[in-house]
Amino acid sequence: MQRERQQHAEERRVEERQESVALRPGGEFDGVSVVVPVFNEAECIERTHAEIETALDGIPHEIIYVDDGSTDGTGAILETLVARSEEVGVIRFRRNFGKSAALAAGFSRVRYRTVATMDADLQDDPREIPRLLEKMFEEDLDLVSGWKRDRKDPLEKRVPSKLFNRTTQVLTGVRLNDFNCGLKVYRTEVVREVTLYGELHRYIPALAHYRGFRVGEEVVNHRPRGGGSSKFGFERYVRGMFDLMSIVFLGLYQRRPLHLFGGIGLAISSVGVAICAYLTVLKFAGYGIGDRPLLILGVLLIIVGVQSVSFGLIAELIARTSYASSEPPYSISREMRGAANRPDLHPEIRNGNPSPAGGLPEGEFPETGLRTSRNEV
């Protein structure tokens, strides 16, 4: 009886949070796009979907599943989900490209102004999404990351994670306790401006912080794994530390690499010049310097310093053109959306052409609130 009362009270708190988000005045909140990367989660993906739908009942939403090359039948289950609901979208990769690529693909398809991410293994509780959204709006944040304070993971995962989070705090200056929590909410401006590749999904809060976005944190419920197998491995932390060095460099010197390499080069060259100046004084004083290793060191430092400055100049040129020629870090074999059968959409859009030849016809589409004109760009 006591447990039933507690469960009822929790359900009521969830409903109140949902109402406070869904009825927010001023049009700031129009709905939430939930992006869920999936890799071999056939055991639990249907339960995950049911929990998300229950948690967001009454809140405008869409759910975008990104199948990162699953081989256990997850893709077939996702096809049944997309056939049942117009609010479900599925993106399937040709092979496993990693979580960062999966998130990047999902972010590129969202249609609401707020985005949530979570893992598909049932450890993240989707009932926390309304609470994270509430914090984001109340405190005028751009990103709110979950904090698994009471983490339901084995010791061999918790200890490296604490070390990893502490190191990331120190190097990035972002005071979060849990960078790697999959449960986060964002404004769409964040996901549009943050570029993900490699293992950079762990550092989305740091990337957002470096771009001037306001980042916060909220304690969330964490549960034991509900199915599937853990993708944890020590090599992930090794790769993550290399990516962390990239993040620090990109955050501080992405727009001005010459400041870093030029500064290092000038410092090294200065030492070399000082050594050579000292040896020059000795030479004029009548001492022999031709057989001194210090002479070789001084000349070598000057050469290395000049090379470092030159490298900085080249990096400066590359930084100005790199993003113009970049390509998405994934390859999509198929994309499905449940809204494809909606009668209120333009026929060419329903048939899978998001940009019909010649554009949409002029006029209004009352059920969607869309108005088109030939003069619009």
Automatic annotation (TrEMBL):
The chain crosses the membrane at residues 260-282, 294-315. One of its GO terms (molecular function) is undecaprenyl-phosphate 4-deoxy-4-formamido-L-arabinose transferase activity. GO terms for biological process: lipopolysaccharide biosynthetic process. Residues 23-74 form the FHA domain. Pfam families: Glycos_transf_2. Residues 1-19 have a biased composition (Basic and acidic residues). Belongs to the glycosyltransferase 2 family. This is Glycosyltransferase family 2 protein. PANTHER family: UNDECAPRENYL-PHOSPHATE 4-DEOXY-4-FORMAMIDO-L-ARABINOSE TRANSFERASE, UNDECAPRENYL-PHOSPHATE 4-DEOXY-4-FORMAMIDO-L-ARABINOSE TRANSFERASE-RELATED. Residues 1-22, 342-377 are annotated as: Disordered. CDD domains: DPM1_like_bac (cd04187). Its EC number is 2.4.-.-. Keywords: Cell membrane, Glycosyltransferase, Lipopolysaccharide biosynthesis, Membrane, Transferase, Transmembrane, Transmembrane helix. GO terms for cellular component: plasma membrane. The lineage of its organism: Bacteria, Bacillati, Actinomycetota, Rubrobacteria, Rubrobacterales.
